[in-house]
Design a protein that fits this description.
The complex is a heterodimer of chains A (337) and B (306). Chain A is of the alpha/beta class. Chain A is built from eleven helices and ten strands. In chain A, strands 3, 4, 5, 6, 7, 8, 9 and 10 form an eight-stranded mixed β-sheet that branches. Chain A is globular. Classes of the chains: A alpha/beta (337), B alpha/beta (306). At the A-B interface, helix 5, helix 6, helix 7, strand 9 and helix 8 of A face helix 6, helix 7, helix 8, helix 9 and helix 10 of B.
Chain lengths: 337, 306
């Protein structure tokens, strides 16, 4: 959608909201509030409908993993994978409070078993495996469970021949799991190669923030990498840099728009266009001959298969033509005839 | 080189490690201090002693040369071996020149360049890790610090040749792991390997920069613990009092360990090596046992062997 188109979309939404303002009793909800960027008020319902993007100024709020799944796939139309995995406490770690307590609190406040939710879903009719991080669970930090679930998601996607969608939102490795958390960077990077072997693509979406060991491992290895507007994307955060080097950083340091200019991401994509954009690129990269029987009925696959059948003759003869042209002694190219 | 002394000494120090697998708080902080001792041998101190000849290469062919990262090809036991490692400096000038052993993206790209050559020529890769972390700077971020580290990890995992990584001093954060994905990971007795430096952790978790000692105790980043967690495959003993007391002997012991590891790995078919490498890292990180509470489901319970 063009910039103009997006604005129209927002305006319509606002108008509808304004029209219903008096007719409807105002619901008091924890999610209702004021945008920190533009001070406009919104209701919980409006916020939900607008995918947690401020309808007035486009500020992107944090999204929980489950809500993200509903935004990307069909509502409720995903199958969660390995929800039972939980963190151990290998170091018996205590900082200001014990790690076990932090885990219990995080589970209670978020309703999640860990900082990542993996699922099978369809994005705009393209079946895929998704691994979605949730910043509200201990800052989306990567410990052994996040590493393991991500690695399993890679294996699962590779086995089924499905593309992987990763949404990163993380402060980095989980300090409370110490050196073993660091090792998850290696585990996840290695696991990604299962997808390379299966020749299926990885789309990475960088949400706010993607920093530290998550940015320095799987999050920076997407085949296609999108960033949400305003997302901080950095190995070292601004505070650490300012403290270590005494540099004065620009206000947009490490932000998605800047990282696009730096060549670190492929595009900055508004969340309201994200599912469409992911669906589109997965559709472009789709290779029907690799897909499993589970996807056989979907209209997108039928279209793709039809396309493949139409193109079959050309596809099959192409390598031979190419081979003939490059074979030594071949008349093509050497003989002016 | 393996004949010159060392053997009896190695056993003696290994015994010491075995006897004290549960380092107390004081020992732990002492370990952290020793790992960063100003006289501790650095990457080039080891390379020059272990190799009969060494050709250092410079530059990543993209942007510049990172002096915090040393890479090149050495003659090790009459065979070619690629050596890569972060380099710290001893005096103020040298420290600045080496950027305190904090490499930027150019450093990791130089490392990858050497790995690629080594892989193509069938030369084993040895990395020596000694860094407080990758360089935190705006310029490093703009040139892709995160992607440089992740790709270095990826390249190390993809190598067909035998690989050995050694934590020789301070191994902190992704900057250390960028050189740490190897068939065998060794760790010097008084070195540390952690997700973050004690000072960094102190500032973030305790919101107080003076809690480094407490942070070190919480992270327990010692060689014995890393061995117990399965993060490293062997603890390399140091001369009595620490590696800084005798660079020659420290290098000689490390030489033996690396030689032994490369010999073992050289006997494995490349496919098997890579499979084992994948397994090695895949199993790291215990999950909660649904039956047994918060216990450790994987990792070693025994102290390191001699």
């Amino acid at each position: 959608m063009s910039r103009v188109g997006r604005n129209i979309h927002v305006s319509v939404d606002r108008l509808r909201q304004l029209a219903h303002r008096d007719a409807r009793p105002r619901k008091i909800s924890a999610d209702a509030g004021t945008c920190p960027k533009c001070d406009s008020h919104y209701s919980a319902d409006e916020m939900h409908r607008n995918l947690r993007v401020c309808p007035a100024c486009g500020h992107h709020f944090a999204v929980t993993a489950r809500e993200r799944l509903e935004q990307l796939g069909e509502p409720g139309g995903y199958v969660e994978l390995w929800p039972e995995l939980r963190a151990a406490d290998p170091l018996q770690f205590t900082d200001l409070k014990p790690y076990t307590e932090r885990i219990a609190d995080a589970e209670k406040s978020t309703g999640l078993g860990e900082a990542i939710v993996c699922a099978e879903l369809e994005v705009r009719h393209v079946p895929a495996v998704a691994a979605i991080m949730d910043f509200s669970y201990m800052g989306g930090s990567m410990g052994a469970v996040v590493g393991e679930k991500l690695a399993r998601a890679c294996d699962h996607a590779a086995q089924k021949g499905l593309p992987l969608i990763v949404v990163a939102a993380s402060g980095g490795a989980r300090m409370q799991e110490g050196t073993l958390a660091l090792m998850q960077m290696a585990k996840t990077v290695i696991a990604l190669d299962a997808l390379a072997e299966a020749r299926v693509p990885v789309v990475v979406v960088l949400a706010h923030p993607t920093t530290g060991g998550v940015w320095a491992s799987f999050a920076s290895l997407g085949d296609i990498t999108y960033a949400e507007p305003g997302a901080l994307i950095a190995f070292s955060g601004p505070r650490v840099i300012e403290e270590t080097t005494r540099e004065v950083l620009p206000s947009d340091f490490g932000r998605a728009e800047r990282q696009l200019e730096n060549g670190q991401v492929d595009a900055v994509v508004d969340r309201r266009e994200l599912a469409e954009r992911i669906g589109r690129v997965l559709h472009i990269l789709r290779r029907p001959e690799l897909e499993g029987p589970g996807a056989a009925g979907s209209p997108a696959l039928q279209w793709a298969q039809g396309g493949a059948q139409r193109a079959a003759g050309a596809v099959q003869s192409l390598p031979r033509k190419v081979m003939d042209r490059i074979r030594p002694g071949s008349p093509d190219g050497e003989d002016p005839e | 080189m393996s004949e010159r002394g060392g053997g009896r000494f190695v056993r003696k120090v290994a015994e010491k490690v075995r006897r004290a697998p549960e380092a107390g708080d004081d020992d732990l902080w002492e370990s952290v201090q020793l790992a960063r001792h100003a006289e501790r041998p650095y990457t080039l101190d080891y390379i020059t002693r272990m190799c009969s000849d060494f050709e250092e290469v410079h530059g990543d062919r993209l942007y510049g040369d990172d002096h915090a990262m040393v890479a090149g090809f050495g003659r090790f036991h009459d065979r070619p071996v690629a050596f890569i490692g972060q380099q710290k400096g001893r005096d103020t000038n040298e420290r600045t020149f080496r950027n305190f052993g904090m490499a930027g993206p150019e450093g990791y790209r130089k490392a990858m360049r050497v790995m690629e050559i080594a892989n193509r020529l069938g030369i084993p890769v040895v990395t020596l890790i000694d860094t407080p972390g990758a360089f935190p700077g705006a310029s490093a971020e703009e040139r892709g610090q995160g992607g440089a580290i992740s790709r270095s990890i990826q390249m190390m995992w993809r190598l067909d040749v035998p690989t050995v990584a050694v934590i020789i001093g301070e191994g902190s954060s992704g900057g250390a792991l960028g050189l740490g994905v190897a068939d065998r990971v060794l760790m010097l007795e008084n070195s540390t390997y952690s997700v973050i430096s004690p000072e960094g952790a102190s500032a973030i978790l305790w919101r107080d920069a003076s809690k480094a000692r407490q942070a070190a105790q919480a992270f327990k980043p010692t060689a014995a613990n890393c061995y117990r967690w399965g993060v490293v495959d062997a603890v390399v003993p140091e001369p009595d009092g620490g590696a800084h007391t005798d660079h020659e002997q420290a290098a000689e012991i490390l030489d033996q360990y690396i030689y032994r590891a490369l010999t073992d790995l050289g006997a494995m078919p490349p496919v098997e090596r890579r499979r084992a490498r994948r397994e090695r890292f895949r199993k790291l990180g215990p999950l909660r046992d649904p039956e047994g509470g918060m216990g450790i489901a994987t990792g070693r319970e025994t102290p390191p062997p001699g």
